[in-house]
Design brief:
Blueprint: E1 5-7, E2 10-12, E3 16-18, H1 27-35, E4 42-47, H2 48-52, H3 56-61, E5 72-76, H4 80-93, E6 97-102, H5 107-110, H6 122-135, E7 140-145, H7 155-164, E8 169-173, H8 187-196, E9 201-204, H9 210-220, E10 224-227, H10 237-247, H11 256-274, H12 278-293, H13 300-310, H14 316-328
Helix pairs in contact: 1-11, 4-6, 7-8, 8-9, 11-12, 11-14, 12-13
Enzyme class: oxidoreductase
Keywords: Flavoprotein, FMN, NADP, Nucleotide-binding, Oxidoreductase, RNA-binding, tRNA processing, tRNA-binding
Catalytic activity: a 5,6-dihydrouridine in tRNA + NAD(+) = a uridine in tRNA + NADH + H(+); a 5,6-dihydrouridine in tRNA + NADP(+) = a uridine in tRNA + NADPH + H(+)
Length: 349
Amino acid sequence: MTTGLQIGDVKIAGRVLMAPMTGITDLPFRVLASKLGAAYVATEMVAAAELARARPDVVRRAAVGGGLPLTVIQLVGGDPVAMAEGARMAEAAGADLIDLNFGCPAKEVTGAACGSALMRTPDQAARIMEAVVGAVSRPVSVKMRLGWDENSHNAADLARRAETLGVAAVTVHGRTRKQFYTGVADWDAVAEVKQAVAIPVIVNGDIITAEQAREALERSGADALMLGRGVYGRPWLAAHLERALIDGTQLQEPYREERLAIVIEHLRASAAFYGLPLGLKMFRKHLGWYIEQAPWPADPLERRAAKARLCRLETPEEVETALTDLWLGVTHLSNFDVENRTQVFEAVA
């Protein structure tokens, strides 16, 4: 089985990618996921027009650095000129790949004729693709949905236009905009896109387990897959699924000390990146997911209470101490180092 993916001239050391997610895939998360083995983690969705205006919070979403082996910046917008300028800025900042968002279903995005609203205006989508491809030397990809609704599946047609215009890859979420995240992702419909183009096609939607990863690839015929909400509280998931696809090995979920070290590294990185108190505020949603995903305490009600308690704490030090006590039953921090982990990728015997 192929173990990598090539988009344009960029070689990616894996076929399990992490999607751009607003409020999730900031620089601290991307660096951590990369350390844990993810080959591709895109930035949050970055508004191209606001990036061109250098709005501080938008510039921060496009932040690069941290020793990342690959930088993918996703842009959203409805104006070809602004998207081209945003792409030039992304390239100048160090982007290896530039991804265009034609898939976000959020009302505030589609209401501005952006995201998946562009599935309804394919001519405008084509103008954006042409402008961006012409503005940069780095490969350009597009993330889209099947269409606006069940009566307008046009992903294959749009992918053909993308390929003609020089787009190097397309990702297709197996739902329409009307579905948002309800129902079931249609991996078979993604196969129509794969059959329509020669460029790489990446399947997205409802992929959390190794079995789902294999089935999504088999049914869609896609070259790679992209994870979304499944990585909440599990930044190691891409590496685990990658290994399962390569040789069938099932990797253990991080246990107490390993998981604690990962969470603490993430917390400290968030505090350093954003400063305080913003860094802790931005981290709280991740903290909630980390606690929900961990099997300790065993009682779900106790876990829920612990989550509520820890998410009210006001300093990183308080969070570290409380989480250590919750998971290890002690009040000193583990000496386990995420850089020298021994069990995160240890195979189940």
